[in-house]
């Protein structure tokens, strides 16, 4: 490390240039040129050493205090690592597997995340270009007419050569043509690593965008499987309501026959008909919820809402997971959860930005050079022409600007602190998600066992009460109560089975399970054609939304 200039508050520029005369044949003294060349060569030789210096904090992942086990996990669950690879396939539903593949390929949120990755990579490429020299070429041709011929010199010292091309005398006019060519190059040495910190920040931004893409896939697969399970649950509940309503209609018909025979009352008939109608009233609302779930699945796969209606209409059982689910240890989610990874990469990105802001407080040195030539004929640009060149270092030294640069450092530090807090918050949220899912899954399994026992008992009670009613050993109110209780218990059991599977999905989502296969982030969504120089298409220019007139 070398002794740097002390940081100051702002910038004023001092330039050192070596300029040769514009008139051919006049040269600088040889000793001065040799000394200048040695100085420049020495500066170039020192440039790699000087460029090795950077300012600002070097990033290191912050330590995170994690518990040894999840509080709601059993010892057996903690002993095995989470099985996150293609976890939805363990639901053994080929239709669901196909839908997940389609969603990964065509979901619009995922497509947006892919574009964000490409954007971050392009931004990094732009930042990386600042580490290399830049060069530009120029050319021009000027045709002019003057009232008199001759050779004149401008106040700036640049000679202008004119040629009489129309044969006019001294009292006539003259036309002149001047060809000019030029070449400019510059290179910032980045002595204090400002540009390298910017590239470092952009690199972390690329990694954060890639993690956000993975997080979008985790969310997508979790949402898709949840809606799919809910749709199958609605189908099962619709079938249950339809069967129950048909059975209750049979009971109402039996009651009417007993009323016609004088062994039942009109009240019993009305109650039987009312209960059947009440059960049938549940069907339209269930069908509406089912349709909404299917529409959502279609949109998640990048299709119009009604696309999957016919494919989903065939009823299939509610997917049932294999339990219990291994969870591993809490520290695993730091690597498995892409949102945690994205938050950590964003912290790294803004830590590098602090170094970039601090580098603005220090001097910067650039090497600049230019070459220009002019002639009256294009063929003379390389010979017999007026040639000028310049080369030398340029020093920019911060001096004063009202504390703007120091405020920039404080701004970068405050942004870094926000992302540090965001990382800690993301880790706590991840832990909360896992704990909540574990508790929900465990308690729902207990509830399902009770509901299954309840449904079995109410089923026995409904059969017995109906048999006793037919033989006159029980009142019709007992039948109504038993059938109502049975339907409620069976419907609650179906909902509980849906919740068990959705809790299973939520647990894998909380653990960071998602798509771990290849994702194409290089192919753009929009492929432009005919992008070279061309006349605009009149139809395209006048096109109106949507997609034309």
Task: Give structural notes.
- Helix content is 54%, strand content 11%.
- It has helices at 30-50, 75-79, 94-106, 108-128, 194-260, 266-300, 309-312, 333-336, 338-359, 404-470, 476-511, 538-541, and strands at 12-15, 18-19, 134-146, 152-153, 159-160, 174-188, 364-375, 386-397.
- The longest helix has 67 residues, at 194-260.
- The protein is of the alpha+beta class and 549 residues long.
- The strands form two sheets. Strands 1, 2, 3, 6, 7 and 8 form a six-stranded antiparallel β-sheet that branches.
- A hairpin with a 5-residue loop joins strand 4 and strand 5 (159-160).
- The protein has twelve helices and eight strands.
- It has a domain at 57-132 and 200-360 and 403-524: Outer membrane efflux proteins (OEP) (Up-down Bundle), CATH 1.20.1600.
């Amino acid at each position: 490390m070398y002794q740097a200039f002390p940081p100051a508050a702002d910038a004023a520029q001092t330039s050192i240039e070596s300029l040769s005369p514009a008139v051919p044949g006049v040269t600088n003294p040889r000793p001065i040129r040799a000394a200048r060349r040695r100085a420049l060569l020495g500066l170039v030789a020192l440039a790699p050493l000087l460029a090795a210096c950077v300012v600002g904090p070097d990033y290191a992942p912050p330590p995170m205090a994690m518990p040894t086990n999840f509080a709601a996990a059993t010892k057996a669950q903690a002993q095995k690592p989470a099985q996150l690879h293609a976890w939805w396939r363990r639901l053994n539903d080929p239709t669901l597997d196909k839908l997940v593949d389609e969603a990964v390929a065509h979901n619009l949120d995922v497509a947006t995340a892919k574009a964000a990755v490409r954007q971050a990579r392009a931004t990094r490429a732009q930042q990386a270009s600042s580490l290399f020299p830049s060069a530009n070429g120029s050319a021009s041709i000027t045709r002019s007419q003057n009232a008199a011929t001759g050779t004149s010199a401008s106040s700036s010292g640049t000679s202008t050569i004119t040629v009489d091309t129309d044969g006019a005398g001294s009292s006539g006019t003259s036309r002149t043509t001047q060809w000019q060519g030029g070449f400019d190059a510059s290179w910032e040495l980045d002595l204090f690593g400002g540009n390298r910190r910017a590239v470092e920040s952009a690199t972390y931004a690329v990694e954060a965008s890639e993690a956000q893409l993975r997080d979008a896939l985790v969310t997508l697969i979790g949402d898709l499987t949840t809606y799919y399970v809910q749709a199958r649950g609605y189908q099962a509940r619709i079938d249950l309501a339809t069967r129950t309503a048909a059975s209750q209609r049979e009971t109402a018909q039996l009651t009417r026959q007993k009323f016609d025979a004088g062994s039942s009352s009109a009240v019993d008939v009305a109650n039987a008909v009312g209960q059947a109608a009440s059960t049938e009233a549940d069907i339209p609302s269930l069908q509406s919820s089912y349709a909404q779930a299917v529409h959502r699945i279609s949109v998640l796969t990048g299709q119009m809402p009604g696309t999957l209606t016919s494919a989903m209409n065939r009823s299939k059982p509610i997917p049932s997971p294999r339990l219990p689910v291994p969870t591993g240890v809490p520290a695993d989610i730091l690597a498995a959860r892409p949102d945690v990874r994205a938050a950590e990469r964003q912290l790294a990105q803004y830590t590098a930005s602090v170094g970039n802001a601090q580098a603005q407080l220090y001097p910067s040195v650039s090497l600049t050079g230019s070459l220009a030539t002019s002639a009256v004929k294009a063929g003379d640009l390389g010979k017999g022409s007026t040639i000028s060149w310049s080369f030398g270092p340029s020093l920019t030294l911060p001096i004063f600007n009202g504390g703007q640069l120091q405020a920039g450092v404080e701004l970068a530090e405050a942004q870094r602190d926000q992302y540090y807090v965001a990382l800690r918050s993301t880790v706590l949220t991840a832990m909360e998600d896992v704990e909540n899912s574990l508790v929900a899954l465990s308690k729902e399994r207990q509830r399902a066992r009770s509901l299954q026992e309840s449904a079995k008992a109410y089923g026995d009670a409904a059969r017995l009460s109906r048999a006793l009613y037919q033989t006159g050993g029980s009142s019709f109110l007992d039948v109504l109560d038993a059938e109502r209780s049975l339907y409620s218990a069976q419907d609650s059991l179906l909902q509980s089975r849906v919740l068990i599977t959705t809790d299973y999905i939520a647990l894998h989502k909380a653990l960071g399970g998602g798509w771990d296969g290849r994702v194409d982030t290089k192919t753009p969504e929009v492929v432009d054609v005919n992008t070279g120089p061309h006349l605009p298409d009149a139809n395209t220019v006048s096109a109106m939304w949507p997609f034309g007139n």
